[in-house]
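User: Modeling request: complex.
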Amino acid sequence: MEKLCIKAKLENLVDVTAFVESQLETLDLPMKTQMQIDLAVEEIFVNIANYAYSPEDGLAIIEVELTEDPRVIITFIDNGKPFDPLAKEDPDITKSAEDRKVGGLGIFMVKKSMDDVFYEYKDGQNILRIEKRLGAIER
Amino acid sequence: MNIIKKAEGTKLTISIEGRLDTMTAPELEQVVKTSLDGVETLVFDLKALEYISSAGLRVLLAAQKVMNKQGDMSVTGCSEDVMEIFEVTGFSEILHFV
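Assistant: Request completed. Predicted assembly structure:
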């Protein structure tokens, strides 16, 4: 399992995405799967960068693990304020443009594009784990 | 990301190439904010758009709201993968695809 420890700042998104992509390089993933993973990584890291430590600075740890099944498991850890992004109600995606709110859309996209998403707050850490099954049937 | 604007009378076409994400969306937001005066037909050409996250969706929604008041907005040429993001988020019901 490889790990990146980086300042939770928006400008580091490029490095975070590059790190995750470098871990998955050998798998030669379909474009769609790669895009779904990039999307989940962006939405989660941006959430941490915007809210976890605000207005202070802090670190985020990103771990990438590949299992035999095969699955990609990516874990995001921060020491910021306890925040369970999964507790938020899903946005109403049937509303018209005028009534739509885009808040909460990011984490909703994570839930839709990943096979599993877990959150726990443990020992002062927010731990968010996403899993994507690879191969066989694409969702 | 590259943004290419093409104006023909009251019609404006904005082509977006590359990745529309948290880092690049503010640039498009700026273009949308400053370019829509007097525009009655707005077309987003997304055939070279490779990726869109919620930050990009937010800008498209803002543009749609402006155009609802002053004309029409449509989206053209998006890839299957981008289209799926529009579908998952319900944007396929809000945006008009041609």
